[in-house]
Amino acid sequence: MPFPGRKPLLLIPLVGFLITSIIDLVLSVVYRDVPLEFFYLSAIGFAFGGEPIYYMGYYGYGASITTLDERASRMARWSFASAQGDMSDAALFHSKV
Predict the structure, then answer these.
(1) d(Cα 27, Cα 20) in Å, to the nearest integer?
(2) Which of the residues 37, 50, 56, 77 could staple to 46 if both were Cys, CB 3.0 to 4.6 A apart?
(3) How many Cβ atoms are within 10 Å of 95's Cβ, its own excluded?
(4) How far is CA 18 from CA 5, 21, 22, 48, in A?
């Protein structure tokens, strides 16, 4: 069987994030009617690898598509873009107005 590459490292955690988001959405609607133990379902994304596995595939893919000369600058740009996304998420969706 050939090596599947880094695609599973990117896709499997995304499936876990999607399932976790759906569970969080449902629990936010019915949170008063369910027992407290149902909120443990929100952690199911970690069974799919979570962020560490996703970022391992993310940076592994970046390392495999770049040459040795441009690798450091490309990884720095990807890290900067990821940090900007985290900051804009915090500013847009978690601010208290």
Answers:
(1) 10
(2) 50
(3) 7
(4) 22, 5, 6, 11
Q: Which of 81, 82, 63 is nearest to 5 (CA)?
A: 63
Instruction: State both tokens at 90.
Output: 């915090």
CA distances from 77 to 7, 44, 50, 70 (A): 21, 31, 22, 11
Query: pLDDT for 8-28, tens place per residue?
Result: 888 999 999 999 999 888 888
46, 16 contact by CB (below 8 A): yes
Structure token digits, residue 93? 């969706």
What does pTM read for this prediction? 0.72
